[in-house]
Amino acid sequence: MDSKVRFTILSLVFVLSTVFFWMMLNNYLLPSKAQLDTNMKVFISEKDIPCNAKGLCLAHIFGSTNTGVGVAGVQGSFRYSDNIDVLGLIQDEFCKNASFKLDTELGFRIDPASRSAEFALGALRKDDLLESGAKCITGVILQPKSGTTTPAQGFIQLADSPLWKAAGAQPLVVNADSSQITINITDDAPIPSLTPPIDKDKGCSTYSKGDCNCDGAIDLEDWENIRSSMNGEGATCDVNGDGASNNIDVSIWLINNEFIQ
């Protein structure tokens, strides 16, 4: 065999051997970021959501980790259609049955212009008390826009994975299912019990929008009533009628008040 041909063959063998070696090294000896971190999947548990045009409905954001991989905090965002409003987050009975127990709201912001919302929830428990497995992160309170003609369809959709973060006893990488979930708006869909009631004692149809004193305006006087009620300082204003004055009532006021639109 010609020496030049032999040299060429040996060179090719060397190059191919080197490439193969580095492939094996990367795959089996040098773990990737995905191998170093533990994945957490997030998704909306409902396949479609029935929603009464005159009431509220709920979407539930779930997460899933390996057993024993506790979750201490989740930050994420979602989009929704222009015929739907988002009123706030809630740990309802459905969530409480199997929850990560992220009971501290670290932040919640709605952007009506982009039809999106972002939130962060956390827990301060010890490592061995953090929840793992497939469980609820939070419920989302949805409301069809007033005047929506039925039947109609809207949607809610988790943001893509790069916009999600999670923290826990081990590093976590979030994989978000960003499929659109259909919201079927009808006149006869069941209404969750947390639907804001009209305050019959006051005869005030705007109470459920944050008009705590029923003076026809949703303003700073109502903000003060909510603040006072949340802190047990005399006033009573439970806007959504769930038995407590909390951040849900604040969220409803923020959406409907006359100053911050």
From TrEMBL:
Keywords: Membrane, Transmembrane, Transmembrane helix
Gene3D superfamilies with a match to the protein in the record: Dockerin domain
Alphabetized PROSITE patterns for the sequence: EF_HAND_1 (PS00018)
Biological process (GO), any one: polysaccharide catabolic process
Alphabetical list of InterPro entries matching this protein: Dockerin_dom_sf, EF_Hand_1_Ca_BS
Membrane-spanning residues: 7-25
This protein's record includes keyword Membrane: yes
Region forming the signal peptide: none
Name of the protein in question: Dockerin domain-containing protein
